Amino acid sequence: MHLKDQSDRKVADFPKELPNILEPEIEEDAEESEANLPVPSDLDLVQRYIREANRFSLLTPEEEKALTTLFHETGDRETGSHLVTSNLRLVIKIALEFQKYWMKNLLDLIQEGNIGLMHAIRKFDPYRGIKLSYYASFWIKAYILKFIMDNWKLVKIGTTQSQRKLFYNLKREKEKLRSQGFEPGPKLLAEVLNVREEEVVEMDQRLGAWELSLDAPLKDGSDEYHKNFLPATEPQVEEMLADAELKNLFRRKLGEFRTELNDKELDILDLRLLAEKPMTLQEIGARHHISRERVRQIEDRLIKRLRQYLKNEIADWEDYRTPMGD
Prior knowledge:
The chain contains 14 helices and no strands.
């Protein structure tokens, strides 16, 4: 998935940014000076944003089909805005999942997610038989993930090999040790993950900090809670972040590895190992006038070469789940 829009279709009238739903409407004859107004906290702004987003109705399947088709065919500005505002709650859900990995304002993640939402709406094809929310969720997550990873130096997560290892594996190792009957304290975790004890403590504090309480109401006296915005079942965020970095790194190194291969090996890599519907050994053999057994031998050797290449090129490769099935 590329974050840069590859669509050739121009939608000149589609809004480049969302209307600011947090901007208060000020009467022309209002006399109260803006300087006298209290400055809202980040949490106040988040709660206010969520309340305002809830004012926009969700679409029925029939409405979504009609609006996405109209926008796809005409690029109508008002239709595009309607599709965006009716899906703001989806962005909030996803941003809340990633919140503990961003140690600043949740609205930063919501803003990036909104950009991903608008990108998804521009690219969405209503004739492919999938829901807009399902399609958009991938773009929303991609933009939020990219934002977090681009700003790791600012939040000081993942700047060293040890920190990356902890970031990806700390929660998983805690659960694993508990299941084995151990108390996952910093000392034991440091030994298991081969890092310093103080690094475990530091990362544990970071991952546990700056998280809105999911049991806290959106406002005093409200029956709605932050946890109501979370989806019932979603992949672990740690795994998504690990996969995002790994896939980017793997793609780069795979491109370098390809330059070392001959035509037979390239075909086996592309048409067998990386293909969604791999060719059979017989089909590959027929293309190159060699036997099925010879194709199998080349494939086995190629897999070993690729694994070794990745281990040599990526220092902590074995700390990740590899796409080669290791």
